[in-house]
Amino acid sequence: MKPILVVGGGPAGLAATHALANVGQPSILVEKMDRLGGAPIFSGYAKLVPSGRWAKEAIGGMVSRVEQDSLVTVKTNTKVSTFDGQPGNFTAKLSDGTSVECGSVILATGFSHFDSVNKPEWGFGLFPDVVTTTQVEQMISSGQGVRCPSDARKPKRVAILLCVGSRDRQIGREWCSKICCTVSANLAMEIREELPDCHVYIYYMDIRTFGHYETDYYWRSQEEFKVKYIKARIAEVTSDGKQVIVKGEDTLVKRPITIPFDLVVHAIGMDPNVDNMTLSAVFGVDLHKHGYIARKDTYGSMGATSRPGIFVAGAAIGPETIDDSIAQANAAAMSAFAVSRELTKEAAE
Amino acid sequence: MPIHEKSLIRPENLKVHDKLSIDGVDVSGHWSTFIETRVVPDYNEALEKEIAAFPGGDKIHRCFQCGSCTNACTINAIEPRFNPRYWIYLIRMGMEQELLRDKDIIWQCVSCHKCTNICPRSVEPEGVMKATALWLEEKGYTPESPSHVFDKEFSRQVFERGKIEDTEVLHSFLVKTKQPLLQDWLVAIMWGIAKRVPVKWGLKTALAQVFKPRTRSWKKARAAIEDYIYEEGEARKEKLSRSRAKQPHLEAAE
Ligand SMILES: Cc1cc2nc3c(=O)[nH]c(=O)nc-3n(C[C@H](O)[C@H](O)[C@H](O)COP(=O)(O)OP(=O)(O)OC[C@H]3O[C@@H](n4cnc5c(N)ncnc54)[C@H](O)[C@@H]3O)c2cc1C
Ligand code: SF4
Ligand code: SF4
Ligand code: SF4
Predict the structure, then answer these.
(1) How many domains does chain B have?
(2) Is some CB atom of chain B closer than 8 A to the CB atom of A250?
(3) A206 contact residues in B (CB cutoff 8 A)
(4) Is residue B203 part of a domain?
(5) How far apart are CA B93 and CA A14, in angstroms?
(6) Do A233 and B85 touch (CB under 8 A)?
(7) B27 with B106, same domain?
(8) B247 shares a domain with B126
(9) Residue of chain A nearest B114, judged by CA positions
C-alpha cells in the first residue's frame, strides 16, 4: 500500500496522519520546521480557545501520538522540492534528496502570522511596548507573566487593538481572521486574572466571537472580568516617551480618543502561508484570490483542490480555528484515503 | 442611544404641555420621549444614491463606520463637529435633516486626503465630502462655496482653451466672490514676481491677457469634454429628480 503524503505538521497535519493511521493507512509527514506542532507550538501559545488547555500540553499530546505511531514516518526540516504523477501514483522529491512515492496528498501547510511592521501607524517596531497577541501568548506560556518590554513593569492599562492585518484594503487583506476576537477576549481575561488592578480595553469594529464563543469569551470577559470594549478603529499609536498613546474616534459617543496606555497589543491576523506561491507551483494547485490554497468545491469531495488526488485542510484554506482545522483534516484524510484505496483496488483487479 | 432618538430630545423637538393631567395626576411641562412613542418619518432613503451620483461619492456604500477617517482628519482636530464618519452614516441611513444641521461646515474639507490614506475600505471619504458639499449646493441648501466658484472658473478656462491664465482665474474669482482686487497678499506676490521675472516674460504674460492663447487643435477635445460634462449632468439631474419623486412625505411637508 502506497503511503499518503501529508505536508505540514501543525494541528491539521497531525490530525490527518493520526486519522490515517487509525484505519491502517501509512503516511509520510513532511514538516519544514525542526519540530512538529505548527503555530500553537512554535509560536508558544498559552491556553487555547475553547478547551482552556495549555497549547504545549494539548497540541504536544497530538505530536507525541503521531511520533510514536509506526504507521507515520516523520520528516522534519524537510520540504517537497518537486512533485509529479497521477492520483494513486505520485512521486515527490524532498529537500533532503530522497524521493517518496505516494497515492495521494494532503496539504496542511497552515498560515503565516501577519507582520505588524506592515502597519506602521500602529507603532509596532517603533515603540517597545507595542506587542502582538503572539508575544502576549508567549509572556503567559513562558510563566514570565504579562510585562512591558521596555522596563519589565506590570502594565496598569492595556489596549488590545482588533483586526490588525485583517479587514483592511489599504494593505490588501480583506478577510476577517476569524479567531482573533475570541483570542483577544481570552487574553484579556488572562491579563485581568494575573493583574487584577490592570484595566484592559479592547478596541473593536465588530465583535466576532461566533457560536459558543459569544458567552464563553465575549460576555464572560465583560461580566466576570470587567474587560471594557470600545467601538473604534484606532487611527494612530504614538508615544510621549513614557507611555504609548492610542488615538481614534469613539464612534458611539462621537468623541475623540487620545488615551495613554502601558501596553498596546495588536490582535494580528492570519495571512496566507508565505510559501503558498511555491506550494502552488510545486503541487500544481490553484490559489484562492486572497492567496490561500483554493478548495475545488464546498460540499463535494471534502478538501479537494484543483488537482485530483491532492487535498487541503486547516488554515492553509483560510483563517481557521484549531478544532475546525482538525475536523477538516479528518475529512481530507477520508478523501485522500478513498483515492489511494480506490486506485490500489483498481490496480489489483 | 441611536442618533435618531437623540434628535427627539433636542430642546426644539421636545413636546410641551402647559396643562395636562392623566388619571388626576398633573403631568404638565416638558415631555420626554418615553411618555409617547413618536414616529420619525423624515428618512430620505434615496440620500445615499443622491450623494453617490456626484463625483467622488460613488464609494460611500463601502463604509463600515470604523472612525479612522474622522480621527485622521485635519479639520476634525480643530472642529470636532467636522466628522466624515458620522456624516457618511447619516447619508447612508437617509437622515437628511440631521445632515443639514451641519451644512455650514461640510465644505470646510481641505482635501488633504489623510482620510483616504487611512480608510480600510477605500471609501475615499474626501470624495464623499466634496460630493456632499456639491449636493448641498445643487439642492439649494447652501450658497455656492468660494472654492466651488474658483474650481468653476478654473475649469471653464481649461475647457475653453485647454490652458489657464493664472491672473485671469484669480481676477474672475475675486470679482465673482465680491472681494477687493487689491489683496495685501496678492500685491506682495506680484511685487515678488515683478522683481525677479525677466521683462520678456512679463510682456508675454501681459499679451496672454489680451489674446488668450489656446492649446493647438483644442476644438475636438473641447467638444468631447463638453459632451461628457453634459451627459454626467443630465444623469445626475435624473437621479436627483427620481429620488425626489419617491419622497411623498417630504413633498407634503413643503
Ligand atoms: C495569536 C493566535 C492565537 C490563536 N489561538 C487559538 C486558540 O486558542 N484556539 C484555536 O482554535 N485557534 C487558535 N489560533 C488559530 C490556530 O493557530 C490555527 O487554527 C492552527 O494553527 C491551524 O493549524 P494548521 O495545522 O492548519 O496550520 P499551522 O498551525 O500553521 O501549521 C502548519 C504547519 O505546516 C508547516 N509548513 C508550512 N509550510 C510548509 C512547507 N512549505 N513545507 C513543509 N511544512 C510546511 C509549518 O511549519 C507548520 O508546522 C490562534 C491563532 C493566532 C494567530
Ligand atoms: S476575528 Fe475579530 S479581530 Fe479578527 S479580523 Fe475578525 S473581526 Fe477582526
Ligand atoms: S480630505 Fe477632508 S475629510 Fe479627509 S482628512 Fe482631509 S480635511 Fe478631513
Ligand atoms: S475610514 Fe472609511 S470605513 Fe472607516 S468610517 Fe471612515 S469612510 Fe468609513
Answers:
(1) 2
(2) yes
(3) 64
(4) no
(5) 49
(6) no
(7) no
(8) yes
(9) A235
Tell whether B67 and B114 lie within a shared domain: yes
B29 within some domain = yes
| Alpha-carbon B11 to chain mean position | 28
Chain A, 213-242: which have a CB under 8 Å from a chain B CB? 231-236
Nearest CA to ligand 3 atom 7: B109
User: Tell me, what CATH number does B83's domain have?
Assistant: 1.10.1060
Using a CB–CB cutoff of 8 Å, tell me whether A126 touches chain B. Answer: no
Position B204 in a domain: no
Query: How many CB pairs lie under 8 A apart between chains A and B?
Result: 56
Cis peptide before A50 (omega within 30 of 0): yes
Tell me: do B247 and B225 sit in the same domain. yes
Q: List residues near ligand 4 (CB under 6 A).
A: B 63-69, 84-85, 88, 119-121, 123, 125
Are the C-beta atoms of A110 and A315 separated by less than 8 Å? Answer: yes
Q: Which residues of A touch B114 (CB under 8 A)?
A: none
**Is residue B20 included in any domain, yes or no?**
yes
CB-based contact A65:A18 (threshold 8 Å): yes
Query: Are B139 and B223 part of one and the same domain?
Result: yes
Distances A115 to A165, A267, A270 between C-alpha atoms, Å: 8, 11, 10
Separation of alpha carbons B171 and A145, rounded Å? 69
Q: Which three cell numbers stand for residue A343?
A: 486506485
pTM of the model: 0.87
B129 shares a domain with B57: yes
The residue range of the domain holding B89 is 47-146+219-253
* B71 and B115, same domain (yes or no): yes
C-alpha cell at A55: 497549547
pLDDT tens digits, chain B, 254 residues: what are they?
Answer: 355 566 667 777 777 788 888 888 888 887 665 555 666 677 899 999 999 999 999 999 999 999 999 999 999 999 999 999 999 999 999 999 999 999 999 999 999 999 999 999 999 999 999 999 999 999 999 998 888 889 889 999 999 888 888 888 988 999 999 988 888 888 898 888 888 888 888 888 788 878 888 888 898 999 999 999 889 888 888 877 766 544 444 444 43
Same domain membership, residue B25 and residue B109: no
Specify the residue for cell string 497589543.
Answer: A265
Q: Which atom of ligand 2 is nearest to the CA of A178?
A: 1
